[in-house]
């Protein structure tokens, strides 16, 4: 497992100037077209979201007063509760509105037909399964994975190796909550 701290991940500004992305992992490494990708996005202002044809996305609010995602004729969804995932097709042209100002989201993207993903809010022990990849992001409290203690804004990610990483990720405090993204190959 690969530990990370969001605040130490380099932030790359969006082309439209509306935010910045901190990449957690993108697989396969160095590939022109990712199979799956996890990142943290800081959304600074209202504006369009980039389309990602052939990709399924799950966005989860981490902090801020929310983000309203709209796609004409498809949906109008306000993500207002931290830790509540929302999945949608990356093929869609979306607009984002920030009713209460800037916010931060976890963005998980998987190449349709090659990977599927589920994102769940968890409060108990979780363990990666053999052949799966994924991310655990700590929302609050303290968690333990191997020799690493994790707190809010930290986490771990892992590749879909043939063997599951050893051990579970376990909560260490009564207020512990995390996002568990399970990324599964389809073929």
TrEMBL record:
User: Pfam families, from UniProt?
Assistant: HutD
UniProt region (Disordered), positions on chain: 1-22
Where, if anywhere, are coiled coils annotated?
none
Superkingdom assignment: Bacteria
- Cite the Gene3D superfamilies for this sequence: Jelly Rolls
State what protein this is by name: HutD family protein
């Amino acid at each position: 497992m690969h530990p990370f701290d969001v605040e130490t991940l380099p932030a790359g500004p969006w082309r439209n100037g509306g935010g910045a992305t901190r990449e957690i992992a993108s697989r396969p490494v160095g590939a022109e077209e990712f199979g799956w990708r996890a990142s943290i996005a800081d959304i600074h202002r209202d504006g369009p979201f980039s389309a990602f044809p052939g990709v399924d996305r799950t966005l989860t609010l981490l902090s801020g007063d929310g983000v309203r995602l709209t796609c004409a004729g498809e949906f109008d969804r306000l993500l207002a509760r931290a830790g509540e995932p929302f999945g949608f097709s990356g093929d869609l042209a979306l607009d984002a509105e920030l009713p209460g100002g800037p916010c931060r989201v976890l963005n998980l993207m998987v190449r349709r037909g090659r990977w599927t993903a589920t994102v769940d809010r968890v409060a108990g022990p979780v363990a990666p399964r053999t052949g799966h990849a994924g991310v655990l992001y700590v929302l609050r409290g303290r968690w333990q994975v191997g020799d690493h203690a994790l707190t809010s804004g930290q986490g771990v990610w892992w590749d879909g190796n043939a063997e599951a990483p050893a051990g579970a990720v376990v909560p260490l405090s009564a207020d512990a909550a995390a996002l568990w993204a399970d990324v599964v190959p389809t073929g």
